[in-house]
Design a protein that fits this description.
Length: 366
Amino acid sequence: MSEAVQLSLALPSELKTRSISGENLTGSRGSGGAATEGTGAHPARSLGQGWKVSPSIPLPAGETTLLADIEGSGVITHIWLSIPPEWWRTLVLRLHWDGDEQPSVEVPLGDFFGLGWAAYAPLRSKYIVSAPYCALNSYWPMPFQSGARITLENPSDVDAILYYYIDYAAGSIPKDAMYFHSTWRRSNPVKGGIHRILETEGAGKYVGTYLAIGVNHPGWWGEGEFKFYIDDDDEFPTICGTGTEDFFGGAWDFEVPGVGYTEFESPYLGLHQIVRPDGLYNSQQRFGMYRWHEVDAVSFDTGLRVEVQDLGWIREGEYLVRQDDIATTASWYAPSPRTAGSDDLTLKSMLVTSHPQQSVHVSQGT
């Protein structure tokens, strides 16, 4: 660890700490807790201003709600949100940098925070934390030069309530600081055994993978290799893993003898969620796992394509190409708010039912 990193917390900074929430919608100095109307106005009716009058905000059905609109340069340091799990695959989170109308982040809310199955599971990592109960935290640093806009879309026909705050540091940041990007892709079922996680052009640094898999067939599902096609790689990739569980830091099917599938967490990788069949309606196993590439980030100059195989065993000694339900969230940094040559930043063919317990489904081929 370098001396600069060791001393970073002790060094002075010209950046100014700000926070946006239902109690301070603009993040302005001296404006926190000044609301006279809000979701807490009735409980605070005998106390008045300054007593939790606006701790949350409504998310009207069929509308996109502005969470933050920041002017000037700075860096988002922490995002915290709380809303019940049934909303996690319905609400769509979008982040825009420097006035760009195209979002650099466009992901169903739960998947962005490593919880793609609308069910709570603890996640204790360096960059994403889910805490009891329904508390979603992001510590990805997100710099911007002239502004940041964060929205949450509620495409259902049911109103919701959101508790949130967004912490950021306002002030000058290095001109070469890259922009944070994140995109979601789902293949249900996977076709041809290949799920494409990301395809983007230009330079950048790949830093995060979250994978949610719903098992559609009996048997082991994680033989598939992760492949990174860097720059001008064509038929074969530069980086090729040895199996899905290996990529996320496990081995031998994530199975502890006599126990079965076993959750684990660490700062950079883990299998944190196992949704086991309940003998009734939840008949299939589902899993959630993550890998944050801080110390092993994948740098690229002209483009990157990331894929994972959906592979198991048809019998001992012979592979089976499977057709599971795989959804992935890929995160990377790029020199521009907008990345060229990719449709990754648009959720396509979104089919949302009238009840928030039903998942957002994106139909995308691989």
